[in-house]
Write a structure and sequence with these properties.
Largest sheet: 7 strands, mixed
Number of helices: 25
Shape: globular
């Protein structure tokens, strides 16, 4: 499929024990009542904004009592909320619709309308844009549906019935108080950052922070570095909303990691060395805190920093343990979810709704239920997050839990995946957990966050717990050799999963898709779409540290090289590839030379930057209708966005792999041409079957072997499938891999 578009229309594209027991007891009692009331609720079907996939309309679903709409699945915070809602509602024995709006008010409105159509009585809604959600709330009110605004207040309408929230002003006050408590002496540089100006909570957080910080700015403890608006207003203890809006416009992160990092880097570039040294940073939430912390840590004039956060995201808790983020504000999602469910049940059953305050949304005072917040730093991270049961200690490295040691649990299987920051590996985690739970096995699934040292520590921790087999996806194939050898020395079997560990004989088995076939499928798609002669070909690859990147490229070269030789394509962006274009077979070193020029490092930002650099260097004659070998879905979307933005590119064909949800939507929308489906269900099944064979002493089934540079590793290979617009429904929906409700625009 060629991707064609009109430029002007092309879109661009985080004494308490008694209270807790009491809260859980109340929730359990209410949920038991609801389970009787709602025993006949039908299984959930998520909303879609286009025609359903089936040819004939299905009969209307039985009425649901509660629907939930969350703002995005791309921030860990909302995935946590989804998990908590689903678990609580599943335990009550009834179905619920949990939909995501993907930061798009139009999708949000469509989701709400779909829930209304299904007969819900109450919708729990977290708006992406507080003001834009007013029309959505009014549509619900007109249909007689109660709206509970969840964690973010819908503004500008009286059609909001209730608000479930943490005390947002208290969050800002807790962040600011932490900065005050850490500050010493006078004249400390203060950098201010805020959330999105479209989110009412951003104003409440900032209001709380200003309440605490302003007196300490006035007395000289701090001085503001990065906002002329805040400096102009620094003598005012209380700000109007417009005054806060003027400040937030200068310091907004839009709740976006990249925006936060870019703004911090710009602030640091503009600031003289005298405004650095020991600095204090008000960061609005955990995602932006990590991005801002990374920027400040990289500045050689910054000697120390104190940076705030909120949400207690796993990645930020690890940053706190490692000393890279100072604090977070724990807003215990369990309590907020409990409050929201209890409120919804009260509405459904006609019981009195408990509220503890009210909030002004600009039109009306909205009755609210507030949950408490807790400051967390290195001093209480174990007590607040581990001892409370909010997280398991196995989620983290470097925790000091010596005060309450537990006997090591003997596990049979441990799994170590490379990062939780890519959708692919979260999908794998979900599939592993579900399959092993269903089989009745305890398993520990750890993430190495693209760090070989964490990977090694994870494996050592699993060895200590007595595992017999470890399923390991290495971040760096060569660096993982030492880790595999440590496992071999401990008598633990290593199954290399999806990426082959190289440079050692301590790899027992390899579970993989046929990686050469993946590259061949990508390249064949480009060949099949090409017309005539002299088509510009742009090559991109994965990380040079990943053996799979070589296998994918080898497969692609097998197919592309003859079509380069016959003039169908010519290579634009790699002098190494051009020099070798007459060679049907490349050595590993020759592939390495090419990959060094075209590597994306499996990173969205690296991919987009490289594509933009290639396009800047290329004359218009090397654009027009172009063909792009992109190594996976994440890099494909980044590269596609870069090519779509170039006015000299009229059409592009771009490959991918992994069938990530976001890329499937890109394919449906005509922004990515194809993906290679590597059905994770098959790969997970193969890995689990292999691990169980090892544990039980049964024969291990293999279908081939791979050379890792030292030994031939026995392997089990799973098939791959090319997916584009022509078969997306058959391959992904009809097969049950995804539900149609994950997407819009399906035919």
């Amino acid at each position: 499929m060629k991707v064609a578009f009109q430029k002007k229309n092309h879109p661009r594209f985080y004494n308490k024990e008694k209270k807790m027991k009491k809260k859980f007891f109340v929730l359990f009692s209410i949920l038991m009542i609801l389970s009787l009331v709602l025993a006949a609720c039908a299984p959930s079907e998520e909303a879609v904004t286009e025609e359903p996939v089936v040819e004939e309309p299905a009969p209307p679903a039985e009425e649901l009592a509660v629907g939930i709409v969350l703002p995005t699945r791309d921030e860990p915070r909302w995935i946590q909320d989804q998990t908590r809602f689903q678990a609580a509602l599943d335990s009550a024995g009834y179905s619920v619709e949990i939909l995501f709006s993907q930061a798009d008010p139009s999708i949000e409105k469509a989701n709400v309308e779909a829930l209304i159509t299904k007969g819900v009585k109450v919708i729990i809604l977290t708006p992406h844009d507080s003001a834009a959600a007013a029309a959505t709330a009014e549509a619900a009110r007109a249909a007689g549906v109660t709206i509970i605004s969840y964690d973010r207040l819908i503004t500008g309408t009286d059609a909001v019935d209730y608000y479930v929230t943490f005390d947002s002003i208290a969050v800002g006050e807790a962040q600011a108080q932490y900065l005050v408590d850490q500050a010493e002496g006078q004249g400390n540089p203060l950098y201010l950052y805020a959330g999105a100006a479209t989110d009412n909570n951003a104003f409440l957080f900032f209001e709380g922070a200003w309440n605490v910080l302003q007196p300490k700015i006035a007395d000289g403890t701090f001085y503001i570095v990065n906002s002329s608006q805040a400096i102009a207003l620094q003598d005012k203890p209380t700000l109007t909303r417009d005054e806060m809006g003027g400040i937030i416009a200068q310091i907004t992160t839009n709740w976006d990691f990249n925006d936060a990092k870019s703004l911090a880097e710009a602030n640091l570039t503009a600031a003289p060395a005298a405004d650095k040294g020991d600095v204090y940073i008000l960061a609005p939430n955990d995602g932006t805190a990590r991005a801002i912390a990374d920027a400040f840590a990289a500045d050689t004039d910054v000697t120390n920093y104190v940076v705030t956060g909120q949400d207690a995201e796993i990645a930020s808790v690890q940053y706190i343990i490692d000393g890279k983020q100072s604090m977070t504000v724990l807003k215990d999602v369990r309590m907020l979810v409990d409050d929201a469910i209890a409120m919804a049940i009260s509405v459904v059953t006609g019981a009195a709704v408990e509220t503890t305050g009210e909030y002004d949304n600009g039109v009306t005072m909205v009755p609210a239920k507030q949950s408490e917040v807790i400051t967390v730093d290195q001093s209480n991270v174990v007590e607040a997050l581990i001892d409370s049961g909010y997280y398991d200690a196995s989620e983290f490295t470097g925790l000091d839990v010596a005060e309450a040691p537990e006997a090591p649990a003997e596990l049979s299987v441990g799994i170590v995946l490379p990062t939780r920051d890519e959708p692919r590996w979260i999908q794998d985690q979900t599939r592993f957990q579900a399959a092993l739970d269903a089989a009745g096995y305890d398993v520990e699934i750890l993430f190495s966050q693209a760090d070989p040292s964490i990977e090694k520590a994870n494996v050592e921790a699993l060895i200590t717990k007595g595992v017999k087999v470890i399923i390991l996806t290495p971040h760096d194939s060569a660096a993982a050799a030492a880790t595999a050898e440590a496992a071999r020395a401990a008598g633990v079997t290593i199954i290399s999963y999806d990426r082959l560990i190289t440079g050692t004989d301590a790899v027992d088995y390899y579970v993989t898709f046929d990686s050469i076939a993946v590259g061949e499928a990508q390249a064949q798609y480009l060949v099949d779409q090409a017309e005539g002669q002299g088509n510009p070909l742009y090559l991109y690859a994965g990380a040079a540290t990943d053996n799979n990147a070589f296998l994918f490229f080898e497969g692609a070269w097998n197919v592309l090289q003859p079509k380069i030789a016959d003039g169908t394509f010519y290579i634009v962006n790699s002098s190494q590839a051009i020099a070798l274009q007459d060679k049907p077979t490349l050595t590993r070193d020759e592939m390495g030379g090419i990959i060094a020029q075209i590597t994306t490092n499996w990173d969205f930002n690296d991919a987009k930057s490289l594509a933009e650099a290639n396009l800047t260097a290329a004359p218009a004659a090397d654009k027009g209708d172009v063909y792009i070998l992109a190594p996976n879905d994440g890099t494909a979307r980044a590269i596609a966005d870069a090519f779509a933005a170039d006015t000299d590119v009229t059409n592009y064909v771009v490959t991918g792999q992994d069938a990530e949800i976001a890329s499937v939507q890109y394919i449906i929308d005509g922004k990515q041409s194809m993906t290679v489906l590597k059905d994770v269900r098959m790969l997970v099944d193969d890995a689990i079957a292999m691990a169980i064979s090892v544990v039980t002493g049964a024969a291990v089934e293999t279908t081939g072997e791979y050379d890792n540079g030292v030994t031939m590793v026995p392997a089990k290979q799973s098939e791959v499938i090319t997916v584009d617009q022509s078969n997306v429904v058959e391959a992904l929906i009809d097969s049950g891999y995804y539900d149609a409700s994950e997407f819009t625009g399906l035919d």
